[in-house]
Amino acid sequence: MIIPLYDTTTNQIADKLVSVRQDGGAIALSRVLTLLVPVGAAAAEEAIKAANEASMEHPCRVIVIVERDPSGQATLDAEIRVGGDAGASEVVVLRLRGSLIDHQDNLITPLLLPDVPIVTWWPDRIPDSPASTSLGMLAIHRVTDAKLSYGTLAERLEHLQRGYAPGDTDLAWTRITWWRAHLAAVLDRDPDMPVTSAVIYHREDHPSGDLLAAWLGPRLGCPVTLVHQAHASGLTRVELHRADGVVAIDRPVGSDVATLITPGGPDQQFHMSMPSLADCLSEELRRLGEDTVYGQVIREGLPWLRRAGNLTEIRAE
Q1: What is the tens place of the pLDDT at every residue in 89-146?
Q2: What share of the chain is helix, strand, coil (3-state, %, to 5)?
Q3: Is the pTM of this model over 0.70?
């Protein structure tokens, strides 16, 4: 069910939410967090869809803030989405015009759920400093997505590093959770066998490969080679070169099955699909505290990559 409200106020929206609950019982009371989603009009529906899917695991109130016509008359149009149009959440879509765009934190205050955490997710942009924005200051956890944001890959990574504060994370990092888990397991099997170099194959314009290199290289103390693949959808292979041979995790383009290759041992296959946007968001809503490892990668790992001799980049033929 979608309930439109035109030229309204957030107090009126809050009253309508209460009346919908009282009249139809359509909105449950067991919300575990409030998710704030500032997003451009073009990406709004995709973000709402992902939030709805993530809400099946994390029932929440989703407040989507869409900026429209900054120079126009100050007006607020809204939609309340419940039931089949909102997953296990309740979705409030706010479309702001004119001067209201500059007062988003005050505007949404009547809509915030009491006594639950607030998470802010920017699906299509990386603010200069997420923690310093008005919506970021309300949140204990702030999520960006460098894969979908504008600018070159180097600019996006620089943006993440320059604006980082504890509590920040990025879905480009979340997308490599299973790669990091399997690589850590491989390294734990032979902790006394040093890795002399690492090679990462990935899509050339995706930041996940660089973040994996910034995590892996400093911890192993070895140089890393990034092999850029034009037609891959993400990471496809990681090689750890050791004295006894090459340990590799290989996931071919288009496959959901990865293979662990070890020197002198049998190949082992396991399922490792590409996570969806909703999967990544759901994972971040599970982890509301500071991701200290991500913080180390952003503050220390990325500068490590820029030092001479640590990183080589080549393009696959």
Answers
A1: 789 999 999 888 888 988 999 999 988 999 999 999 999 999 999 999 999 999 999 9
A2: 35, 25, 35
A3: yes
d(CA 271, CA 134): 41
pLDDT band at residue 85, thresholds of 50, 70 and 90? low
Q: What is the pLDDT of residues 3-50, one digit of tens each?
A: 989 999 989 999 988 888 777 654 555 788 999 999 999 999 999 999
Q: Which amino acid is at 261?
A: I
3-state secondary structure of 6: coil
> Which residues lie across from 269 on neighbouring strands?
259
Q: Which two tokens stand for residue 165?
A: 């504060």
The answer to whether residues 143 and 284 touch, using CB atoms and an 8 Å cutoff, is yes
CA pair distance 293, 246, nearest whole angstrom: 26
Q: Which of 221, 228, 184, 224 is nearest to 203 (CA)?
A: 228
| Residues near 45 by beta carbon (within 8 Å), at least 6 away in sequence | none
Phi-psi region of 59 (alpha: psi -120 to 50; beta: other; left: phi over 0): beta
Q: Token pair for residue 9?
A: 């106020």
**Cα(39)–Cα(100) distance, integer angstroms:** 15
Residue entry with tokens 């449950």: 28
- Token pair in block for residue 236: 């496809």
Strand 118-121 vs strand 33-39: parallel, antiparallel, or unpaired? Answer: parallel
